[in-house]
Amino acid sequence: MTDHEPDANDAGTVTFVNTFTLHVEPEVFEKEFARTSEFMARQPGFVRHTLSRHTERPGQYVNVAEWQDVASFRAAVSHADFKPHASALRALSESRPELYVARLRRDGDSALRGPALDGTAPTEEEI
Q1: What pLDDT does 115 receive?
Q2: How confident is the model at residue 3 (pLDDT cuts 50, 70, 90)?
Q3: 20 to 30 Å CA-CA from 123: which of 6, 73, 80, 115?
Q4: pLDDT at residue 8, rounded to an integer
Q5: Rounded to whole angstroms, how far apart are CA atoms 19 and 111?
Q6: What is the reported pLDDT for 61?
Q7: What is the CA radius of gyration of the chain?
Q8: What pLDDT, in 10s, does the model give residues 36-52?
Q9: How far apart are CA 71 and CA 77, in angstroms?
Q10: Is 51:63 a contact under the CB 8 Å cutoff?
Q11: Angle at 54 between CA 76 and CA 75, to 5 degrees
Q12: Calpha distance 39→26 (Å, rounded)
C-alpha cells in the first residue's frame, strides 16, 4: 500500500481506492474483475465496492471499496486464494492501490457524519 497506511488497530471503516490503466480491452478486464469482486464480497469485513470506468478514457478504471476495518482488508488481500486474482488483474493492467480513513461524509441533503476536517464539530448552521 502506502507509507501512510492506517494502523491495524485503528477502529472504523476504511476505503480502498485502486486506479487501473488497462493493457487489454475493457470487456476482458471487467470479466476478470467480476471474478475478483465475487471473491472479495465473501470476505469478512467487506461492505461494498464500485468499479467505475472513466467517461472519456475507456482504458481507465477506479475501484472504490469500503471495509469494516483495516484488519479485515489486510486479511482479505493476504488470503492465499486472493493471489490468483491479484496476478490476473496485474497481467491485464497497471494499478495504484491506496487505503484511506474517512474524515468527512455527507449524503445528499443530510447532516455531516464523522469529524470535521479541522478537528472541530460542525455547528448547527453547518448541519
Answers
A1: 58
A2: very low
A3: 6
A4: 45
A5: 30
A6: 98
A7: 17
A8: 999 999 999 999 999 99
A9: 10
A10: yes
A11: 5
A12: 20
CA–CA distances in Å: residue 48 to residues 13, 45, 66, 122: 11, 10, 5, 28
In degrees, rounded to 5, the angle at the alpha carbon of residue 106 between the alpha carbons of residues 74 and 14 is 5
C-alpha cell belonging to residue 30 = 471487467
Crossing angle for the helix pair 83-92 and 26-41, nearest 10 degrees? 160
Decide: 16 and 65 in contact? Cβ < 8 Å: yes
- What's the grid cell of residue 119? 478537528
Contact 63, 50 (CB under 8 A): yes
Place of cell 483495516: 70
Sign of the torsion formed by the C-alpha atoms of 109, 110, 115 and 120: positive
Over 70: is that where the pLDDT of 57 sits?
yes
What Å distances lie between residue 64 and 16, 26, 47, 106, CA to CA?
6, 18, 11, 16
Q: Distance between CA 27 and CA 98 in Å, rounded?
A: 24
Query: Three cell numbers at 41?
Result: 464480497
Q: Percentage of the chain surpassing pLDDT 70? A: 77
